[in-house]
Structure formats: structure tokens, C-alpha cells
Amino acid sequence: MAATTSEVRKQRAQIGVRTLRGDRWWLAPLGTFAGLTAWLLYALIRTATQSNYWVDGYNYLSPFSSPCVSASCAEGARHFGTWLPEFPPLIPLGILVLPFLLGFRLTCYYYRKAYYRSFWLSPPACAVAEPHSKYTGETRFPLIAQNLHRYFFYAALVVSLINTYDAVYAFFGKNGFQMGLGNLILLGNVIMLWAYTLSCHSCRHITAGRLNHFSRHPLRYRMWTWISKLNAKHMQLAWITLGTLALTDAYIGLVAADVLPDLRFFN
Amino acid sequence: MTEIERHSYDVVVIGAGGAGLRAAIEARQQGKRTAVVCKSLFGKAHTVMAEGGAAAAMGNVNPSDNWQVHFRDTMRGGKFLNNWRMAELHAQEAPDRVWELEAWGALFDRTKDGKISQRNFGGHEYPRLAHVGDRTGLELIRTLQQRVVALQQEDDKLHGDPEAYIKVFQECTVTRLLKDGDAIAGAFGYWRETGNFICFEAPAVVLATGGIGKSYVVTSNSWEYTGDGHALALMAGAGLINMEFIQFHPTGMVWPPSVRGILVTESVRGDGGVLRNSEGKRFMFEYVPDVFKDKYATTEEEADRWYTDQANNRRPPELLPRDEVARAINSEVKAGRGTPHGGVYLDVSTRMPAEEIVRRLPSMHHQFKELADVDITREPMEVGPTCHYIMGGVEVDADTGAASVPGLFAAGEVSGGMHGSNRLGGNSLSDLLVFGRRAGAGAAAYVDGLTARPKAPEEAVRQAEAEALAPLEREGGENPYTVHHELQQTMNDLVGIIRKADEISEALGAIEKLKERAGVTGAAGGRIYNPGWHLAIDLRNMLLVSECVAKAALLREESRGGHTRDDFPGMSPEWRRKLLVCRLDGSTVNIEEKVQPSMRDDLITLFERDELKKYLTEAELSEYDALVEKEA
Amino acid sequence: MGYKAKFRVWRGEGGDGRLEDFTVEVNEGEVVLDVLHRLQATQTPDLAVRWNCKAGKCGSCSMEINGKPRLGCMTRMSTFTEDETVTVTPLRTFPVIKDLVTDVSFNYQKAREVPSFTPPAGVKPGEYRMKQVDVERSQEFRKCIECFLCNNVCHVIRDHEENKPNFSGPRFLMRIAELDMHPYDVADRKQAAQDQHGLGYCNITKCCTEVCPEHIKITDNALIPLKERVVDRRYDPLVWLGDKIFRRRSEKTS
Ligand SMILES: Cc1cc2nc3c(=O)[nH]c(=O)nc-3n(C[C@H](O)[C@H](O)[C@H](O)COP(=O)(O)OP(=O)(O)OC[C@H]3O[C@@H](n4cnc5c(N)ncnc54)[C@H](O)[C@@H]3O)c2cc1C
Ligand code: SF4
Ligand code: SF4
Ligand code: FES
Ligand code: FES
């Protein structure tokens, strides 16, 4: 295309600095780093202590410990039954699904962006050079496994169902229907979890993104447009659900520890 | 003296816009080794900026449309000065050319039943413009570009070399055509990137270099439009016709100053936008000329109804041909009813919901938001006329695109005749496709008919080289940017939208002086990508073309389409029979008159007598009467 | 309304060069490209810069302004304060020819490596019937003006020259997505997207989307869906099994 006989030396502009960006480009990755680290630490501590995850009578079960199916779980929390023997200390009670949830979020297209940028600095921000000398992206093991996201999505659907069950279950106590602030928090959390899960890129693909003729599948197309709208908010939902998860767990923790009385509306 | 890079091809196409690419594709499909040369990167030619659409009577939206209607609209738009054979071929072949693009991967907007959607445009009786939002030109050029790539992939499979049969020479400017005796023998140019020279040996050259807008200050055209093809043809001995006809698009941006002239697509009006003066009045109703009286609405109510019911209402006067609208805006501003920045208001914000505006006119929304800080969904735009298109160009044979010089072909904006004195919106993109293809085929056939390959004399190559190097070698010459700017201002002020004999003469005087100054411009810096040097070379072309425009404008003593003489405001049937042909004699332009051939019988009878009598001479009318009688 | 602005422009040929300081007049409503043109007309006639349309339509005037990849003609001076120094450099990912002009032939090379539109045999021009909803996704990608800012900013090649042979960049991965979603295209592009065009290199960090002047959602609408389509073909155990058993010929989703 260009002059083949060109005698101009061809190389990139030799600009010594890593970036000429003068704005505070490091702010966003730093914020992400801090936010994700803080959340992980919180989740680790809360799950490893195996305590204050259940409010008897109100039937509040923290999403971190759901489904609670080990003999270590409080009697009432075992509404799915007791499938596993007692856990040694430090093992999260929700261990059965936590790997899937973690896998779902770790392979999520948004979180990938977030941690590649903020933890791995690859790249830290646009037009800022990354510190690594080699880069192969998601072409080989282990990162090629990111392609399994869709299977984690299927698993996440099941977990969302479990969480929904938990939230609904909490409305029915010994005296029938009941409701407190905790119920609303659980419910809000579940709604957000669904929004996040359904806004998943894999979900968008499966509903109709994989088709080439939307017009032949009007129903799936309608779903696709709807999910596409949610999908545009996927990043926000990713953060919101981190927030609602932590908030739900913290609230239940405080009520369970008797630090805070639950605000009751009904029964 | 440096070594000159040399290449041998069957066909060299100069220009990689719609016309050039279509010509090259055709030549390659006919088995010719083809080179495409362009000044910018591949895919950036001016065609990329076309917004509204490509006119083709496919009848997808209104089945009453057919080539005859399109032909009539085109002739009417051009005020019957068009080369009727070109207008005929254009109307007949445009649909096939558009469909072909689709088979090459273009994705036009669709109708409900899945066909190519078509939109209304000024001067077109039915919705006729195939479009993609307001970026049709981009779709067109990208599709052709990708078609070239597809052919290269084919060649790669067959011959192991993608560039075996079609190669793009990008950022390469042609400065001279080379001849062997009377016939074309090749082209000479330089690589912008290195400043090195390149020489093509080829028996056929297709000019597809686009227009001349850079001779004006206020223009929708880019730096590429320095009239190179027009000048190359002149210098090679070909004639240019209709050079006095320049289309001033009625709606260019007027503010801020740095974007003055940038186009506001006609689709804004086609989709419901209205023009108002500073008093809030829809002034276009007062400017409907007699020839169009029965085709346009007389009240705002009727005009508004038309958008939803076109069968029973006449169209709004905002959709008159461009020359009429441009003149109307010009008069309003002159009468003191203009906007603060010297334009008029073009408003869609009160006509459509914001969402609809963004969907239908995305690039306009973007353009105003980014460049003028105006949100067109809330406020009106300020617009005024801008130099947009030259109807004139190389005189060619309608069927083959051949110019009078053997081996020289032209297509697209650089060719003349098709659009008469005024081009309808959307007729250019289809023109590029129809005549690009024909010129490519014409060149291929010409090459087939040759018995020996012409050879350019070495001396001509050396001369071209010396000419190109001159500005670099002049120490402390005049700044080419200054000369260029003065030329633009001169043409804008003196040979602009409204012309007067004394002003044109003044312009001609100024051009003479500028020619001298252009001869002594110097370019600082080296040969590698030096825009100052490139401009210095281009000045020659702009000056030649400006001279053609001014001289022809001075001679034509009437007002018609893109040529308005303040001192001769009427349209004259006698002048309709005359074409002005510019030729180069030494270094000055001479003009000859030529008779415009009469329309073929079956074509002229497509029109009503009532309409023809506004354009034709008495003699022509009686011929028409005789014809009609014979048929009856 | 005018003021004198401080500009630093990278000037040089080949890779060698330096940032040069200029003081230049700026008027109301101007964009960076206008100021560069003023520099050309008044101080540095041979300053090399590409441009055509001056309206963000052709994608010629790509450059880096204060370190950010941008179109010069769409960067208004009013986005800077009057005492801010505006630094203009050429695209970093491609070799420099001179000043702000880079050799972008990498992109044309990659364009040629994407197999072109392949309609089924037997459909004649004029017979195509496509619904608007079926073409809309590809239409978004066809808004691309080929400014190559996305390929320039993508760290896969910006920071790793050695990846260039294996990676087509977001622009051309998006082209593959465009064709793969075309209702009439019958070629199988998924294997090639991964194997030849390096889709796997993309770690969806979205810089391409951030810089695209056409606001195309490259990552969300082209790259991720393409990754998902690749998963369909390559990482879906059921499909994989089916391929093994029936040695199924490549075929597109309906
Ligand atoms: C803003 C705008 C909007 C428009 N909208 C529409 C519309 O909606 N509908 C419509 O029908 N028309 C429209 N037009 C008109 C139409 O776009 C042009 O007339 C048409 O694109 C011209 O195409 P072309 O192939 O003749 O030349 P171009 O596309 O202009 O290509 C010219 C080519 O020639 C090359 N070239 C020039 N000189 C040389 C040289 N010396 N050496 C080598 N190469 C050279 C250039 O590099 C370029 O590649 C519009 C025009 C503008 C400016
Ligand atoms: S999202 Fe992928 S293609 Fe886009 S810039 Fe990031 S790594 Fe490159
Ligand atoms: S996708 Fe956007 S950024 Fe990339 S080349 Fe196209 S227009 Fe430019
Ligand atoms: S959950 Fe984020 S993309 Fe699937
Ligand atoms: S000049 Fe065309 S995009 Fe800037």
C-alpha cells in the first residue's frame, strides 16, 4: 500500500514517557482496586467466622451462607435439609455454591475488565503503557478458561433461585406471614442479583444474540432487546450487587448479634 | 535527479472515490491490470462525506416510480441543459448499481417488507434515495473498498499476489498526464509520504478526481478538491463543459467560523425540517419560481400534510431544487432577515420528537453537538449557502465515459454534462456508480482495441519532474497558503452565488495576478510529507479551474441553475442550446460555444408541452408539436 | 475572543523527533485541527498532518492530544483552559512517517486478511430481503470511519509490537462480527476469529470503546458477542462432542 521503496526510517515515535495523559487516569483503577479488595476482605472474614449468619424466628439467612446444608448450620437455617456433616472451623458454610459464585464473578466480562485493569495493570488505563513485557491475553491456560463463563452463568441461575427461595422463606414464620426491614433488604438484594445475573453478556447471547435473523424469532428478539438494555448497566449492577450482598449480610449479622434490633412492620 | 519509480498497467484510475473505485472494479472484472491512485488514504475520499443517499428509481417505497420519472426529475433539476443521454442511462441503470452494492455487502436501511428503504429529497418526485441514516457515502465507499479487497483476495488465491490485478496507490498525487502523440500514455505523480516520483505507463487513464470546491472559502469540500482532474484533462487537451455551473448547497453551517461551510444534509429538510428567517417566517413559500408553481404547496398546512400523505398534497417549498433554496436564503440574509451569524434558521426540533431526530439524523445531531455546541433536538440550526459541487467537468461520451483525447476517460464529479446546470441531491452517488462502471468498461474496451501500447516520451517525464520540484527549489518564495487564501476569497466574493459582469472581470484580473504569484511560491522544508509543497503544486490546478469558471460565467448571459447573473436574471431558451467548452491554449483558457444536441424523440415526448415551453425555443417547440402529432 | 495558546507538537521524521513548543492564536469555536492549520499557514508550513472532512466523517485526523487518542477535528479548544499547554503527538502504535502522520498500513493489511462478505450462491442482486432489525447490529459497526484510534489504543499491540502478526485489532475483529451477524453471510468466521485474528488476545478492557469517535460499542456489541459465538463453536462441550461424532461441517446459526 504505502511506498515500498520508501527510504524513510520507519519506527514508532520515540516518546520517552509512559503516557502523556495529564488527567488523573490512575484514580479509576485505584478506586476499583480498593473497592474490590475491601469487599473480598469483608467477605472472607464474614464467611470464615461461621457466625451471625442466621436470625432465628425472622428466618433471615445471609446470602454468604446460603444454602446452609451442613450439620454445622443452625437448625432453622437448614431449610434445604442437611446434606453434609459438620464443617471444621474457617470453612464457609455456603461452600457448596461459593466456588460457582466466585467463578461467575471472576469470569464475568465486567469484572475481568475491572481486575485486569486495576490488579494486573493490563492496561492500567487507556493509552497508559502496561508494565509487563509479554502479553498473551486470554489465548492460553489459565486465562483461556474465561471462556467457560457461560457455564458459571447457568450455575448462577440456580443460585439465584436459592437466594430467591431464602428471601421468600423469610416472610413465613411460626405465626404465618411476617415482615421486617430485613425482609425488604433480602428482597432488594435478590432483585438486584437477578438483574445482575440476567444482564450477563452470556445471557444476552443465549437469549438471541447468537441468532442472525431476529425477525424469525420475535419473542426471543423481544427478550434480547430487554436484556440488552439491562446489559448496558452491567457494570453498575456488578457494583450494586456487591453493595447489596455486603449490606444484607451486614444487616443480618448485626441483627443476629443483637447489636441492632430488626425494624418490624408485620408480626 | 533521483530514480523514478515506474509501473505498467492497462488502466490507471485517478481517484478512489465512488466513481474511481467503481471504474477500477469494472476494469479489473474485465481482466485488466488496474491501478487506483488517490491523494488520501484508501477509503477517505470525498464520497465518504455524502450523507443523504443515492437516487435510484427502484420503486420500493412508491411503486409509481420508474426510470422515466427519474429522468424527468433530473432534466428538470438541471434546467434541461443536461446531456440527456447521460440522464437517461443514469436513470435506467441506477437501480442495478445499488442492488449490486447490496450483493457486495452494503446494508441499507430497510422498508417493512425487507427491501431497500428510500427517502424523499429535493427535486425528486417520489421517495427515491437509498440510504443508511445520514452516512450513505460512507456505506458506499466502504462497500466498494471492501469489494476491491474481495477481488484482491480472489487474485491472491489465483495468482498468489493480491495486487496482481488491482493495486491501490494511496497518498500519491498525479500532477501530469503523459501522452504519446495524441493518445494517453500514462500519468506522472509523487508519493506524498516520501516526495519521490512515480510514473505510470498505461494506455488508458480514468479521471475520477471529484470537484473543485477548495477554490472557495466557504465550502463543504475538503483539501482534496483542488480540481486536479479538471486541470489534468485541460492540460492533456480535453475540453471542459458547463464550468460556470457550481452548486451552492443551501444549508452549510455558518457558525462557528472554523466550521463555516460544512454541510448540513438535505435529509434534514426531506425529513421535515423547515427554514425560517429571523422573523420566524417560513419564507420559502415566497420563492417558488413559476416553472415549479404547480408542484409545490402554497400553504404551510398543505406542506405539512405532505409528509404523511404525499399522494394528495404538494410538497413543501423547502424541497425545491438546491439552486432555488440557496438563492432564497441569500436574498433573505441580504434583506436583513438573517440570523446573528448571517444565515437563516433550519429547524427540526419543533417538528419531530427528540428521539426520532437522533435516530434519523444521527450524524447531524453529533456534528452540531460536537462542533457548534447546538442540540438540534432543542434548538434550530443556523445555516447558509456553501460551495458544494461542480456540475461542469470533462466533456465525455455518455456511453463510455471517453473524453476527446484517446485513452482518457472521466467519471463522477470531474465529468460534465450529466447534471446540466444543477444537480439534484442524491444524483451524484448514483452517477458515480453508473458512470464509474461505464468508464471502467469503456477504458477496458479501448485497451482491447489497441494494436500497440503507447509510450510516453522520457522528456515529458523529466519536465513533469522539474515542474513538481520547482517550489521546493525556490528559496524564500511566496507563501502558498497566502496565495491560496486570496484565490478562495476572490472566487467567493466575485464569482459566487450571485454574479455580475464587472465583478467577474475583476476576478479574472485577480486570477491573472495570482497565477504569476503562484509561479513564484516557495515551499520550506523537505520532500517528506510536506503539505506546503503539495499546496504549491495544487495551486496551478485551482487557478486553471477558477479561470474556466470565471470565463464561462462571464460569457453565459442568463441565469440558470448553478449560475445566477444579477445582470441577466432570466433563463433564455437560446442559451439552453449552447454549451461552453473550455480548452487550454498555452497557459490561458479559451472558450468555444457548442450546440447542445436535441433530445431523442422518445425522450422529449416524456414531457408535457406546458413544461417544455418554459425552456425551449419556438423552433424546438414546433418540432415537438410535429412529433406529438405524428404519434397521435 | 481570541487568545494565545501554548502548543507542544511532536515533530520529526521516522521515529526520531521531539516535542516543539509553539505559541499560536486561537479563536472562538476552533478545534485542535484548526490550530494546527494555523501553525502550518503561519509558522511551520511543512508540518505534516492528515485531514480531509473536518467534520469527523473520514477518520483521517487521528492523533493523540494530551496523551489521549482523538480526532483533531472533533476536539474543541474550549475543552482546554486558556493557560493549559496542549500536547499533540502522533499515534503511538504505528510507525511515524513525519510529524503527526503515521504509517497505518498495518490496518490495511489486516483488512485484507478478513475474508469478505460471502452470500449464498444463487441470490441475485435485487433479491435480497432483510428486515431492519436483522441488519441493525451490523449497521452499527459499519458506522466505523476507520480512524484506527481503537487499534491504536489497544494495549495488545500498543504495548506489545510482537503481537501485531497475531492480532487484527478491535477494528477488524469488529468487522468479523459484522459479517458473522450479517443475515446473508454464510462463511464460518468463528474459528478464524480465534486462530488467525487473535480474538483471545483481547481482554475486554474496553479502551477501544472509550476512544471510538463514532461511539460504537465495540466491546459490548462486537467483541464480547463474538467471543460468545466462538464459545458456541469451540468451548461448548456439546458442540465439541457433536463435531467429533458427526464431523459436522461448519455452519452458521439461523
Ligand atoms: C458534504 C457532502 C455531502 C454530499 N452528500 C451527497 C448526497 O447525499 N448524495 C449525493 O448523491 N451526493 C452527495 N455529495 C456529492 C458527492 O459526494 C460527490 O460529488 C461525490 O462523492 C464525488 O465522487 P467522486 O468519485 O467523483 O470523487 P471523490 O469521492 O471526491 O474522490 C476523488 C478522488 O480523487 C483523488 N484525487 C483527486 N485529485 C487527485 C490527484 N491529483 N492525484 C491522485 N488522486 C487524486 C482523491 O484522493 C479521491 O480519492 C455530497 C458532497 C459533500 C461534500
Ligand atoms: S477491549 Fe479488547 S480490543 Fe478493545 S482495546 Fe481492550 S483489549 Fe483491545
Ligand atoms: S471502530 Fe471506532 S475507533 Fe475504531 S476505527 Fe472505527 S470509528 Fe475508529
Ligand atoms: S455476569 Fe458479567 S458478563 Fe456474565
Ligand atoms: S478530518 Fe475527517 S475525521 Fe477529522
Automatic annotation (TrEMBL), chain A:
<protein>
    <submittedName>
        <fullName>Uncharacterized protein</fullName>
    </submittedName>
</protein>
<feature type="transmembrane region" description="Helical">
    <location>
        <begin position="25"/>
        <end position="45"/>
    </location>
</feature>
<keyword id="KW-0472">Membrane</keyword>
<feature type="transmembrane region" description="Helical">
    <location>
        <begin position="90"/>
        <end position="111"/>
    </location>
</feature>
<feature type="transmembrane region" description="Helical">
    <location>
        <begin position="151"/>
        <end position="171"/>
    </location>
</feature>
<feature type="transmembrane region" description="Helical">
    <location>
        <begin position="177"/>
        <end position="196"/>
    </location>
</feature>
<keyword id="KW-1133">Transmembrane helix</keyword>
<keyword id="KW-0812">Transmembrane</keyword>
<feature type="transmembrane region" description="Helical">
    <location>
        <begin position="237"/>
        <end position="257"/>
    </location>
</feature>
Automatic annotation (TrEMBL), chain B:
<feature type="domain" description="Fumarate reductase/succinate dehydrogenase flavoprotein-like C-terminal">
    <location>
        <begin position="484"/>
        <end position="590"/>
    </location>
</feature>
<dbReference type="GO" id="GO:0033765">
    <property type="term" value="F:steroid dehydrogenase activity, acting on the CH-CH group of donors"/>
</dbReference>
<dbReference type="Pfam" id="PF00890">
    <property type="entry name" value="FAD_binding_2"/>
</dbReference>
<dbReference type="Pfam" id="PF02910">
    <property type="entry name" value="Succ_DH_flav_C"/>
</dbReference>
<dbReference type="InterPro" id="IPR036188">
    <property type="entry name" value="FAD/NAD-bd_sf"/>
</dbReference>
<dbReference type="InterPro" id="IPR027477">
    <property type="entry name" value="Succ_DH/fumarate_Rdtase_cat_sf"/>
</dbReference>
<feature type="domain" description="FAD-dependent oxidoreductase 2 FAD-binding">
    <location>
        <begin position="10"/>
        <end position="429"/>
    </location>
</feature>
<keyword id="KW-0560">Oxidoreductase</keyword>
<dbReference type="InterPro" id="IPR037099">
    <property type="entry name" value="Fum_R/Succ_DH_flav-like_C_sf"/>
</dbReference>
<dbReference type="InterPro" id="IPR003953">
    <property type="entry name" value="FAD-dep_OxRdtase_2_FAD-bd"/>
</dbReference>
<dbReference type="InterPro" id="IPR015939">
    <property type="entry name" value="Fum_Rdtase/Succ_DH_flav-like_C"/>
</dbReference>
<protein>
    <submittedName>
        <fullName>Fumarate reductase/succinate dehydrogenase flavoprotein subunit</fullName>
    </submittedName>
</protein>
<keyword id="KW-0274">FAD</keyword>
<dbReference type="InterPro" id="IPR030664">
    <property type="entry name" value="SdhA/FrdA/AprA"/>
</dbReference>
<feature type="active site" description="Proton acceptor">
    <location>
        <position position="322"/>
    </location>
</feature>
Automatic annotation (TrEMBL), chain C:
<keyword id="KW-0479">Metal-binding</keyword>
<dbReference type="GO" id="GO:0022904">
    <property type="term" value="P:respiratory electron transport chain"/>
</dbReference>
<dbReference type="InterPro" id="IPR009051">
    <property type="entry name" value="Helical_ferredxn"/>
</dbReference>
<keyword id="KW-0408">Iron</keyword>
<dbReference type="GO" id="GO:0051537">
    <property type="term" value="F:2 iron, 2 sulfur cluster binding"/>
</dbReference>
<keyword id="KW-0004">4Fe-4S</keyword>
<comment type="pathway">
    <text>Carbohydrate metabolism; tricarboxylic acid cycle.</text>
</comment>
<dbReference type="GO" id="GO:0006099">
    <property type="term" value="P:tricarboxylic acid cycle"/>
</dbReference>
<dbReference type="InterPro" id="IPR050573">
    <property type="entry name" value="SDH/FRD_Iron-Sulfur"/>
</dbReference>
<dbReference type="GO" id="GO:0016491">
    <property type="term" value="F:oxidoreductase activity"/>
</dbReference>
<dbReference type="GO" id="GO:0046872">
    <property type="term" value="F:metal ion binding"/>
</dbReference>
<dbReference type="InterPro" id="IPR001041">
    <property type="entry name" value="2Fe-2S_ferredoxin-type"/>
</dbReference>
<dbReference type="InterPro" id="IPR006058">
    <property type="entry name" value="2Fe2S_fd_BS"/>
</dbReference>
<keyword id="KW-0001">2Fe-2S</keyword>
<keyword id="KW-0411">Iron-sulfur</keyword>
